[in-house]
Design brief:
The protein is of the alpha+beta class. It folds into two domains: 180 residues, no CATH class; 79 residues, Alpha-Beta Plaits. A four-stranded antiparallel β-sheet has the order 2-3-1-4. The model has no long low-confidence stretch (mean pLDDT 77).
Length: 299
């Protein structure tokens, strides 16, 4: 009879541990997924911002005999523009390149409709993401315009403002959902741990009544919480890695290439799983340590 009771208790304990691990794994999988989306959304946002360019123009009026001298001055100006703080990338566009682009955009193959050098040479400047902010774009343009040799800087400010505002709005929503998932992770893992500790409330109280110190009683529960939190986190991360690998292989893109951010996300998910498990275990166990024996029947 005693053997069957022991086997029943072992099965119940095993079932309880599996439930806790699965709960932790599912919650952390969703939390990690939101983290991946947030990281990639930020990188993709920066990529889109870098595609928004301003055009810095050189003087188009000069004598043909000074073309060599002008070309040298434009080269020096281009090098100076590349070193400016707001500049992420700069591309030099000569007069002939500008003419080719114009003909291509208008669908013209012939040179008969306009002279080849009617367009001024220019520099196409991709700004750093932080300078695409509507509050800083004017500052960036002033810096570029101050370079000797640049006579005008043009940009589609309306498009930049619209893109910036839309991207910022999307990132705020994603960040909000990430915080929400973090709160849900805390609540759900905490509830799973509390139910597990609740099933052992009589054991906890019995140990206390026979003289065991609170630290002694807490120690095995904390060790178990660390193990269960780590196992649940690893399972959640493995599932997350599998889903993300399948997704990126299907679309043919690995999104961001910065493995540092993936590494810190793994550490964060692992840390959250273990930390919440341990903290929930301490609070749940402490609650029964402070309660009376009679309260155990009504908890």
């Amino acid at each position: 009879m005693a053997k069957s009771v022991d086997e029943f208790n072992k099965k119940r304990l095993r079932s309880s541990n599996i439930t806790v691990v699965i709960s932790i794994a599912l919650v952390l999988f969703l939390l990690g997924l939101m983290g991946l989306i947030l990281i990639n959304a930020q990188k993709y946002s920066d990529y889109i911002k870098e595609q928004l360019v301003v055009n810095a123009y050189f003087d188009e009026n000069y004598d043909a005999k000074d073309s060599v001298k002008i070309a040298k001055l434009e080269e020096e100006t281009f090098k100076k523009v590349q070193t400016l703080a707001p500049v992420k990338k700069a591309t030099y566009i000569s007069r002939s390149m500008a003419a080719k682009e114009a003909k291509k955009s208008m669908g013209i193959d012939s040179d008969a409709l306009f002279e080849e050098n009617i367009f001024p040479s220019s520099i196409e400047v991709a700004l750093k993401p932080e300078y695409v902010d509507p509050a800083k774009i004017d500052e960036a343009i002033k810096v570029i315009k101050s370079v000797p040799g640049i006579i005008d800087v043009k940009n589609d400010s309306t498009l930049m403002v619209d893109v910036y505002n839309n991207l910022s709005r999307i990132l705020k929503w994603i960040l909000g959902f990430s915080v929400l998932f973090l709160v849900l992770a805390v609540v759900l893992i905490n509830n799973s741990i509390r139910l597990k500790i609740f099933s052992k409330r009589f054991i906890i109280k019995t140990m206390q009544l026979v003289g065991a110190k609170r630290r002694f009683i807490l120690k095995p529960f904390i060790i178990e919480a660390i193990i269960l939190g780590a196992i649940g986190s690893v399972i959640g991360l493995l599932a997350l890695g599998g889903v993300w690998y399948y997704f990126t292989s299907q679309i043919g893109s690995a999104f961001i290439q910065d493995n540092n951010q993936y590494f810190w996300l793994v550490i964060l998910v692992l840390g959250v799983g273990i930390f919440i498990s341990v903290l929930s275990t301490i609070f749940a166990t402490w609650r029964f340590l402070k309660s009376n024996v009679d309260d155990l029947y009504y908890s």
